[in-house]
Every structure is written in structure tokens, then in C-alpha cells.
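Appendix B. Raw example, untouched.
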Amino acid sequence: MSSRQKRVTNRDVARLAGVSTAVVSYVINNGPRSTSYEVRKRVLEAVNTLGYHPSALARGLRDQRSQTIGFVVNDYFPLAVFISAYSAGVLTGLIDQLKQRRYYLLVYPIEIGEDLSSFELLLHSGRLDGIVVRLVQDSPASDRLLRIVAAAKIPCVCIERSVAPRFPFPSVTTDDATGAEQAMQYLVSQGHRRIGYIHGDLRYASAQTRLEIYKRVLSANGLPLNERLIRGHSWTSADAAAAMRDLLSLDKPPTAVFAASDELARSAINVLREQGLRVPNDMAVVGFDDMPLARDMTPALTTVRIPLLEMGRTAADLLLQQIDQPYAPGVSVVMQTELIRRGTA
């Protein structure tokens, strides 16, 4: 269509289909009122015949909505959202639900400790109908950001970590503690008494929780806590490899290793193979997350599954409920983890 041609409007569609403009709106937006099959068919045929494309700007001005959701990543390494398999799983579920409601997604990474003035401006700009915030810290460390969100009075759902009761935001979290307990109890049930642990970056609340459960399960089973069996520094492959080499250098190395992520577990297994050791015959390894790499490894990785797709979908559903029903009470959801037994333990 050239710039001089008249833009097709919903009135043109209504006239051709023999219905009102309101009915055209109901068909195009899948509600809020239902239409008969025959009416819907006539409207869609008219849309195709005329080449009608609803104006997102006009609809947004009318409904006072931008049809855009923000995915805010508050992390020590926020740009990893674009390469992380963890983030990819959450985003896939989130986008899957939002697309069905014709919402767009804006990704906004925020490094922990950075100035939040630009973020505050974004929240007050009217560009977003709501936000999903990924937190890696617990309260009070996350409170500064959440106070800004609360002051903006924008619908919000937090994922990964829950929020303090004083903030009225629903959350979608995973039962990290149970997942770590499942992994450790499984290794104990397989007869392992010297279990090493590679914990990742302890600035992350999830890493702290998994380490705490590692120690608790040892105690519950009457096994001694040996700090020399605990290694780790960051989430990087290089640090995990160094941690595994440290464990192998002990006079009495562990017979099994629990790693706080699948990436850490894969690096540990690579070191074991370099040393000519067999997995699980010489050493068992269990990971955490159940990323695609866990299934693709040989042997496939025994790990704790986090339902990432479901986390994203649930977060989207909760947020859209807030947008549609602003005064409805928010609901927080804890997603259950599952130990997936494969070939490494």
C-alpha cells in the first residue's frame, strides 16, 4: 500500500462483513464477547480481502495499554540472559503465553549494584503494562529494586526468588531445597559416603541454599562434614574444572560429586575423563537444572530438573491476571523439582 492510499479501518471490515465495529473488535481480539462461527468467518474473510491490520497504537491509546511486558533481569551477570540456557527456558515459556495474548516482550538487564534511575524512568514511562523480574538475591538485598517497582504501581511478578511479605508481588519459585535433598539422598542411597560438592557462585541465593542442604543431608545421615570436599568459586567451566582437580588431588577423593548446575557437572566429568576415570564406575556425578546438555551428554547426566518452561508460562499467566484484574489478590507458586536418573550416577 502506497503512502497515498487510504488506510483500511475496522469500519471498512464491518461494512463488508455486515456487522458492527464492536463485533470486528471481538473477533480480532478474541473477546471480551464471543461470536458465532458464521460471524467470525465473515469478519476474518473481510479482514483478508481488505488486507486490514489493526493499529497497535490506536488500540493502545484506547485501552490505555502498550501490549508490552518487561522481563527485568537483576543479576551479577545480567547480559547472560541472552546466552544462558536457564534464561532461554524461562523466556520460551514466558513468550509462548504472551504471544497468545498479543503481547510483546522487552528484555531489560540490570546489574546488581548499578544505578536504577533509568529503570525507574522506564517504569513511569507508560511503555510497559507489567514486568516479570528475575531475582537472584533474597530480601533485604533485593529490596532496593522492589521498592522502586512498588512505588511505580506497575503489575509485577518475581521469579526464582520470593519477595518479602511487605511487597505485594506474586512470585514463581522452585523448591531448591527439596531438589538438592533429592540429589544428595540419592547419592547416599547408592552407598556413597564421601560426596564432594561444587557449589558455584555463593553470591547467588540458590547456590547458598544448595550448599546448606548438602551439609544438612550429610548430618542427617550421620556422615562427617569435610570442608575439603567442598569446592567452587563461580558458575564458569574453568572454575568447575579447577574444583574437580582439587577434589581428585585429595589423599582420599570423593566417590561421588554433586554439582550445583549442569554446566559445573559437565566440566567435572570432562576432568574425570582427562584423568582416565570412568563415570559412574569410578565416580558418580549429579547436576542441577536439567538443561538440554544434560540429555545430550554420554552418558546422559543424572540431574535435578527445574521446570523452566512452566516457570515462564506461570509467570506470564499471573502477570496477565494482574493486568486484567488489578484488585484481585496475587498468588505465589512454588514449582516442584524432580530428580532425573540417567547414566552418571
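End of appendix B.
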